[in-house]
Write a structure and sequence with these properties.
2 copies of one chain form a homodimer.
Chain A lengths: L14 H15 L6 H7 L4 H7 L3 H20 L7 H13 L1 H12 L17 H18 L6 H28 L8 H21 L6 H14 L17 H4 L5 H6 L2 H7 L2 H7 L3
InterPro entries (chains A, B): BetI_C (IPR039538), Homeodomain-like_sf (IPR009057), HTH-type_TetR-like_transc_reg (IPR050109), HTH_TetR (IPR001647), Tet_transcr_reg_TetR-rel_C_sf (IPR036271)
GO molecular function (chains A, B): DNA-binding transcription factor activity; transcription cis-regulatory region binding
Organism (chains A, B): Halosimplex pelagicum
Chain lengths: 280, 280
């Protein structure tokens, strides 16, 4: 956008290094109080050399949001899964917490790993990461609150949102085609709904400090009962606890989905995992 | 909280007037840039007389959030409806946009009503009110982003959130008892889910300028298919368009809810109303 992300600076500082410094400065100072000096302090560059790339804090932040878009879309751009329902739940989990979900997925796929990406941070490696993630979400919410004032911020936020909605829409469309998602589901409406839930979780994390993943169970119930096609052989309980999949297979059967306790039972029985994996 | 909301000041300014001035100053200046002088400028009081009540901007804002809680809970504290499902949808509509929903509901039920005693009260029409509502939501999102820094703000935000969740929980519990909501629905999970959606809609309104009510259809589908009890004679399409209720009766029947197009058809056919009434 500014050209800064694809060229090295004459003074030897790389735009990548500036982006890292911006991230750290945002975590430490938040958006409103952030100065170019704060960002310089987080790098080994002078404020003058920052100004070599960016005239204003706003311009630097725009480049940062651009950089963030690339990192985010790289992180969650492809979603593996047995079927569209699996991919949808995995995608939402990762969007809600890209870094930690990645950690968790890695821990889950390596049997020797004992850590699971929890928030409490008693492990040596991820307590700091979690704090940093919360701090960054806080700065991001401040930037969202600038939406009505800084049109260019809003455009970057819309870009991320469009990416999330496109991915959901495309996964849902695939699911309809493969027969795992009901043919009467509207991919656009579903995408808007999921994007709104994600924004809600992220806002609550900052505003209320809510990181208990309490929404995940209900999201899974929504997927199970609103999206899964009758008769589809899919498990709506994924991402980090594959060993339990056999118990969770709902079949999406019409009568099962509405008149027995198993469906909710399986959602409720899932508390431990949801609390661990939802959005904290 | 500060005692300011229930006593008149020695200089004749009423706390109520200060709250009104705070509301207007927040709409105009946002939270981050707000000064005591800005608030004084919106009232006919001096900055010194504001300080008679409140030592700091933060203290004043806390009293304002307290005042807001009272106004909000007065506005949406009771929800009429034929049954719990009706009340739930009506409650969510009003929480998403208390002022405008009230306008719309009153306009719908009393063709002669043109004014509604809303907070701002200076305009007979609602174009200005809508702008003001957006501005206020922006300031509120800034305050939410202060959650990690100002514990007392977070406590006030939690109070509002607890109220919303309590109401949803209680309506859902009533619905289970009266048989309109499935007995396997968890009132707590539902409350958390609804509160998260509400936060998402409010964040998107500010960050992205999204006011198209696009989530409402999918919320109604969620209510219809996840919450409504099999065989319950309720209409999941309410609030402002009662004339159409007969068309919307889903019966909550198991096969109807999962294998025909009528359910989605009725949700989709509702675009005009949802766009008008959802959250813009």
């Amino acid at each position: 956008m500014t050209g800064a992300t694809d060229s090295a600076a004459a003074d030897g500082s790389t735009p990548e290094a500036i982006m890292g410094a911006t991230y750290r400065a945002l975590c430490e100072h938040g958006y409103a109080d952030l100065t170019m000096q704060d960002i310089a302090d987080e790098s080994d560059k002078s404020k003058a050399s920052l100004h070599y790339h960016f005239d204003t804090k706003e311009e630097l932040l725009l480049a940062f949001l651009d950089h963030l878009y690339d990192a985010f879309t790289d992180d969650v751009g492809t979603t593996d899964g047995d079927d569209a329902v699996d991919r949808l739940v995995t995608f939402v989990d990762r969007v809600l917490c890209p870094a930690e979900r990645t950690d968790e997925a890695r821990a889950g796929s390596r049997p020797d790993a004992t850590s699971d990406g929890e928030t409490d941070g008693d492990e040596p490696n991820d307590g700091g990461e979690t704090d940093e993630f919360e701090e960054f979400q806080t700065a991001l919410l401040e930037i969202k609150a600038q939406g009505p004032y800084v049109e260019a911020y809003r455009e970057q936020l819309e870009r991320v949102d469009a990416f999330v909605r496109d991915r959901v829409r495309s996964i849902v469309a695939d699911g309809i085609e493969e027969g795992t998602i009901r043919s009467d589901v509207d991919p656009d409406d579903t995408a808007a709904f999921v994007a709104t839930l994600v924004d809600g979780v992220n806002t609550r994390r900052v505003a209320l400090g809510e990181t208990d993943g309490s929404v995940r169970n209900t999201f899974l119930a929504y997927v199970r009962e609103n999206l899964v096609a009758p008769g589809a052989d899919v498990a709506v309980d994924l991402g980090g606890d594959p060993g339990n999949d056999a118990d969770r297979d709902t079949d999406g059967d019409a009568t099962e989905a509405t008149d027995d306790d198993d469906v909710t039972g399986s959602a409720d029985g899932d508390d431990g995992r949801a609390a661990a994996g939802g959005d904290d």
